[in-house]
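Working notes for the structural subgroup meeting. M.R. asked for a predicted model of this chain before we commit to crystallization trials. I am recording the input and output together here so anyone reviewing the notebook later can reproduce the run.

Input as submitted:
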Amino acid sequence: MRPLLGALLFFTSSSFAQDSVKLSGNIVNRASDSLVVTYNDNRIAYYPNEFFARIDDKGNFSLAFPVPHGVYTQATIVNGSRRTELILHAGDSLTMTADARHFDSTIHFNGRGCEIQNFIVSHTMAMGRINTYATKVKTDINKEPADFLKAIANEKNVETDFLNKHKAGLPPSFISFWEQLFVYYNYFFIEQYPQTHAMVKVRRYTDTIPDANFSVVAQLPNAFNDSLLQVPSYLLYLTGVFEIKLKAAGYSYRTGDTAAYRRFQDSVVSLVYKLMPSKSAEFYLAQNLYGRARNQPLEKTENMYAAFKKRWPKSEYLLMLDKQVALAERLAPGQPAPDFDIITPDGKHTKLSELKGKVVYIDFWASWCKQCVGEIIKGAKMKELLRKKPLEFVYVSIDNDTTADNMLIEKYKMEGLFTHATGAWNAREVQLYGVTSLPAYFLIDEYGKFAMQNPPTFLQSTELILAIEKLFR
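Returned structure, recorded in C-alpha cell form:
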C-alpha cells in the first residue's frame, strides 16, 4: 500500500523549458537576514531547488530564479520560522511586502502575477494552506461510505464557493488549475478509502477489506487528461486509480504473496498502456519503475526499463530512471556493499570492510523517526537470541542533532555500532545506499556482499532471525 499522504507535494517537470521569476520587496521586522524560495521540479522524486536572497538592514531583498515554462509551480518562501506559499508562473515579476511578526496577515503582492499570489494569501487566511484540504478529507475517511462521499463533496463545494467569491482578475488557466486540484484530491482519497477505513476500524494494518468499503470506488471515473500533469493531485490519482479498481473487482493479493503481487502489478501496467493517454502513462510507468526498481528481481527491473525506453526513447524521466536502475544493479544480492567509516560516539573508528567475516545488519535511522527508534528498541530481545553468532548491528544516523541520538542510545541502552552520517539526506553513506526513507535496512553476508533484497525489519523478528541464521550455514 502507498503511504496515505506522506508529503502531498506539488510537482513540476524538470524537462520543461526554463524561464524566470523575479521576486523583490521589503520585510519589516525580518525573522532572519535571508529569504529562501523552494520548489520541487521533479514529478517522480523530491529534489527541491532552493534560491537564497539576502535581506538588508532595511528589510529589502531582490531575487531572480528559474521556473519551468508554461505550468503552475508551487513554491514556499521562508524567512526564519515564517513561511508562506506561492503558485508561480514563468514571467512573474512580483514585489512583496510583509511584517514578519504577523506574516500571513500582512503579506501583499504587486506586479505581474500578483493576482494569484494575493488569492493564495487570502486562501491561507480563510481556509489554511493548500495541504490543509488534504488533512480535512483524510479525517472524513473515518466515516461510513455514503457519509464519506457526502463529506468530501461538501469540502470541495466549500473550496468552490471560496474561489467564486475571490476569482475576479485571476487568469482562466489558473482558475481551471485550482478547480481540478480539489476534484482530484477527492478522487485520490476515494482510492485510499477502502483499505484505510478498514484500518481505522480495526486500529491496525490490515489487507482484509470489507466489500462495503469498495462501494465508493463506483464514484471514481477514468478521468485522464495529459494537460493536468501540472496538477499535483492528478498525479496522486494516476498512481492508484487502476489498483483500486482492480481490487474493487475482486482482483487482489495477500501481504507477503510476492508472486500474486507481481501478477497484480502486471495487470495494472496492462491497463495503463491500454487506457491512459501517452504522457499520463509515461508518468505512471516512470514513477512505478522508479519505486519498484530496487524491490523486485533485477531482471524484472531491467526488462521494465527496456520496455519503457522503447516506448518513450526521449522521455524526460530517463536520466532519473538510469540512476535508479544503476543503483538497483549496484545494490543487488551478491554485489559488494559500499564501504564507509564507522565512528562511534566514544570515538572508536572502524570501517564496514573491516567487519568481513561477520554478518552485518545495517539500519539507517534518525532520532526524529519514531518508527526507527521503536524498531531499534524492539530489536533488543531478538539480538539476545543471536548474541553468540559472528554478527554485527550497525546503526547509521542521518540526524543533524547528534546529541539527540546519543541521549536515546543512553536512555534505552541500545547496543551495536552507532555512527553518524554527516550531511543528512545528502550524506555519502545515504547516497551510496540509495536511502530515500527511514528506517532502511541492509543485510550483508560474511564476504561483505548484499545477502538479499528488502531484508526483514526488527518488527519481523522471526523472519529476520531465519534470514540471518541462513547465512551461518
